[in-house]
Design goal:
The chain has 20 helices and 37 strands. The protein is of the alpha+beta class. Strands 3-7-1-16-13-14-15 form a seven-stranded mixed beta sheet, with helices on both faces. Strands 11, 12, 17, 18, 19 and 20 form a six-stranded mixed beta sheet that branches. A four-stranded mixed beta sheet has the order 23-33-34-37, with helices on both faces. It binds pterin cytosine dinucleotide (MCN) and CU(I)-S-MO(VI)(=O)OH cluster (CUM). It comes from Polaromonas eurypsychrophila.
Length: about 800
């Protein structure tokens, strides 16, 4: 009965334990339940007719041949959606997006019509048979070209509108101007600074390319007037709200279910035309409709990432103290502004671009621009544009170090926000919750023998016969995650809180439901660990459910590494409500006053008396059996958590590359990643998240690219061309950590999932450029594929 405390604690598998992933039992046996696994009686299939052109007027659509194909039931175009007012839909960014192209197509692969058929094959044949006559228009794929006075008007639906969702539009292809910081103070600091540096850089368009593409199964029950839709969504509740608003079906009769998701990475935040069309088709036909896109459709038409043309500037003293930061960005948003940022932040959290540094003055400006490319922009482990912000500031600090002939580590340490400055308010107004950058930096530099590496590099540089260029990359980044405080963060007006509901059953097991939804992050494993520690119930008997809007409390979903900072807090606080009630029950059962009780791992005991106690299991039974007089039966609680602030995880990453001087082939010799995400719930899952994020960062930095030719034809939209690293190409990752808890989070935890992506990409560029730094090179753009590196070698005269 009285097992040692350490055994009892271990048995809970609570916070801090590397509990094995509960999800994997089904995933490794092929027993996951993805949208494409949903098979309903009488179900039909949808496929999409897409535009081969990037910019064209639609002259005519002929459905006749398609409708003759056996099995084809219907072909829907914008004309069919018009009476329902569903041919356009609102985007999460305050713009509108064509559900099906309305008189004009704006990007290659845009949705033009849908075909519904008895099976997938007939639907695909139907797509082939739909005849669309286009009149090609001049495409614009370069945002700088798009802003020229004579540039073609891309969005005719916005003609004459000088006000957009985020203020004034100064050009017909301009979406918004967004700025932050103090321009005057910053300009003044630049005017009088001893040293200034300026660098242009381009963070190219990439795509997260989750293994599972997007899709939906929509099932409208005309008798009950109820719509159930299984959907690949990272935010099912907000989808329910939007579907209800668009369709007029009461929210209580709309049920959105995100079952297992095969990777989201931000690609599954937006609401796509395919979802809307599947729902409309189900309502029209009165039958369940399944739509699953293929790989090329996914890469070509769904939420891409980045496409930021950035100019950074730093002003500093002659000995390297940074005085001011100024940035100017042209953000290519594609044909519709469908970025999934919190409403008031059209450039996301880009204004974290002052990074880990105590910079007195800063100013940033971002202009969003329309081009003939697919919409999106916020995806791929980005923390709402923190990827771009960290890339910018980390590159700029390197450029400044080069100009001053200072060491990268030294200049960073010199400008760090010091441990005692937290909570620290940045020039952009963010209040950083906690950090200890110097301790982390020292740990990394010692672990890799930084001095030794620099000595080796110097030796190699001095030896003309050395066949390789050695580069050392260093990044000391700060993230901002946990959107967000509802006073500043909302999606379509809904505050960005999150929620948790826990029910403890009579026999002491529990079920917990949250407003977030795992796409591979292991929430079923880690969320249970929080409850286990808070309530003394073993993780193993805590069921975690997410993703079904009919059962889960309203929450804003999983993206921006917000699950731990927001839902994680809701979980702890819902647990604490149960804990408080359990204490009352325990006092009643033990016939003592509540004040005389103390909590110990899994039980309340009489203070100082190990023999007089009630375990949480005893209490659960009593809650349903003999609750104290005046206390209602049952043991459950709901908590909606509106965070007081974001959390600010950070990391120190170091990379060593060896580049073949003849071919540009690059070997990642070492990659050392230290992360600090505050209190760690499951070290193994954190490690997995970091490995995944680093691997994706490696992919982006070293090979991924979506480019377009002048006509707007997308290049590299299949896995033949698009670089998805396998275990063969992936470097060996070395990970490390420090723990600086968040002071405002109930368990001190910060988010971690996006940090490795945000931090690693500039680390690779830092290493690659460092290899050329002694030749006066300050920057070159990603991807650092062998061919492009070889071009740099040629420019440097190292190869011919
Ligand atoms: N965790 C922890 N201790 C902490 C912080 C986190 O143990 N201090 C654990 C959490 O309990 C959770 C995981 O790490 O199991 C990630 O938590 P968190 O950092 O809060 O991030 P989210 O759960 O909100 O995940 C979102 C994030 C995003 S935005 C992208 S993009 C991304 C990522 O997760 N997409 C992923 N990682 C992914 N991993 C997989 N496998 N698939 C995706 O689509
Ligand atoms: Cu920006 S990718 Mo994640 O936030 O789903």
């Amino acid at each position: 009965m009285n097992a040692p405390m350490s055994d009892r604690e271990k048995a809970l598998m609570g916070m801090g334990e590397s509990r094995l992933r509960k999800e994997d039992a089904r995933f490794i046996q092929g027993k996951g339940n993805y949208v494409d696994d949903i098979k309903l009686p009488n179900m039909v299939f949808m496929d999409i007719v897409r535009s081969p052109l990037a910019h064209a007027r639609i002259k005519r659509i002929n459905k006749e041949e398609a409708l003759k194909i056996p099995g084809v039931l219907a072909v829907l175009t914008a004309e069919d959606l018009k009476p329902l007012k569903l041919h356009w839909m609102p985007t999460l960014a305050g713009d509108v997006q064509a559900v099906l192209a309305d008189e004009k197509v704006h990007f290659q692969m845009q949705e033009v019509a849908v075909v519904i058929a008895e099976d997938r094959y007939a639907a695909a044949d139907g797509v082939e048979a739909v005849e669309v006559e286009y009149e090609e228009l001049q495409a614009v794929v370069d945002p700088f070209e798009a802003l020229k006075p004579g540039a073609p008007v891309l969005r005719e639906d916005l003609a004459g509108k000088t006000d957009g969702a985020h203020g004034k539009r100064y050009h017909h292809n301009h979406i918004f101007t967004w700025d932050a910081g103090d321009k005057e103070a910053t300009d003044a600091a630049f005017a009088s600074a001893a040293v200034t540096v300026k660098q242009d850089m381009f963070y190219p368009r990439v795509h997260p390319c989750p293994l599972e593409t997007c899709g939906a199964v929509a099932s409208f029950d005309p008798v009950r007037g109820e719509l159930t839709t299984w959907l690949t969504s990272q935010a099912p509740h907000i989808v329910r709200t939007v579907v209800s608003m668009l369709s007029g079906i009461p929210e209580s009769k709309v049920r959105i279910i995100s079952p297992d998701i095969g990777g989201g990475f931000g690609n599954k935040v937006p609401i796509y035309p395919g979802y809307v069309c599947a729902i409309v088709a189900s309502i029209v036909l009165g039958r369940p409709v399944k739509w699953i896109e293929d790989r090329i459709e996914n890469i070509s038409s769904t939420g891409f990432a980045r496409d930021y043309h950035m100019t950074g500037e730093l002003a500093a003293t002659a000995d390297g103290k940074i005085l001011a930061l100024r940035t100017n960005v042209i953000a290519d948003h594609g044909a519709f502004d469908a970025c999934a940022d919190p409403t008031k932040f059209p450039a996301g959290m880009f204004h974290i671009c002052s990074g880990s540094y105590d910079i007195p003055s800063a100013y940033c400006k971002v202009d969003g621009v329309y081009t003939n490319k697919a919409p999106g922009g916020v995806a791929y482990r980005c923390s709402f544009r923190v990827t771009e912000a960290v890339y910018l500031v980390e590159r700029m600090v390197d450029v400044l170090a080069q100009k001053l002939n200072m060491d990268k580590a030294e200049i960073r340490a010199k400008n760090f926000i010091q441990r005692e400055q937290f909570p620290y308010t940045s020039a952009f107004g963010f209040e950083y919750d906690s950090g200890d950058y110097q301790t982390a930096l020292d740990k990394v530099l010692n672990a890799v023998d930084y001095k030794g590496l620099r000595a080796e590099q110097a030796k190699k540089r001095a030896d003309p016969a050395c066949p390789t260029l050695m580069g050392i990359g260093l990044v000391t980044f700060t993230e901002v995650v946990g959107a967000g405080p509802s006073k500043i963060c909302d999606i379509l007006g809904v505050g960005m809180f999150d929620s948790c509901e826990i029910r403890v059953h009579p026999t002491g097991s529990a079920i917990a439901r949250m407003g977030t939804i795992s796409q591979g992050q292991g929430h079923q494993t880690t969320y249970a660990q929080i409850i286990a520690t808070e309530l003394g119930i073993p993780s193993e008997v805590i069921q975690v459910e997410e993703g079904d809007t009919s059962t889960a409390p309203y929450g804003l979903g999983t993206y921006g590494s917000r699950s731990t900072p927001v839902a994680g807090a809701a979980i702890a606080l819902a647990s604490r409500k149960i804990h408080a009630k359990a204490r009352k029950i325990a006092a009643h059962l033990l016939e003592v006053s509540e004040a005389d009780l103390e909590w110990e791992i899994d039980r309340f005991k009489l203070r100082g008396n190990d023999d007089k106690f009630k375990t949480m299991k005893d209490i659960a039974w009593a809650a349903y059996n003999q609750p104290p007089p005046g206390l209602e039966p049952g043991l459950e609680a709901v908590h909606y958590y509106d965070p007081p602030n974001f959390t600010f995880p950070f990391g120190i990453y170091l990379c060593v590359v060896d580049i073949d001087k003849g071919t540009g082939e690059t070997k990642i010799r070492r990659f050392y990643a230290l992360d600090d995400c505050g209190t760690r719930i499951n070290p193994m899952i954190i490690e997995g998240q970091i490995h995944g994020g680093l691997t994706e960062g490696f992919a982006v930095a070293m090979g991924q690219l979506l480019s377009f030719d002048k006509q707007g034809n997308i290049q590299g939209n299949s896995l033949m061309d698009y670089f998805l690293p396998t275990a063969v190409e992936t470097p060996k990752w070395e990970t490390d950590y420090t723990v600086t808890p968040s002071p405002h989070h109930p368990i001190g935890a910060k988010g971690v999932a996006e940090s490795p992506h945000v931090g690693s990409i500039p680390t690779f560029t830092s290493a690659m450029v460092d290899a050329f730094a002694h030749l006066g090179v300050t920057h070159f753009n990603m991807p650092h594929s062998s061919y492009r590196v070889w071009q740099e070698l040629k420019k440097a005269g190292l190869t011919s």
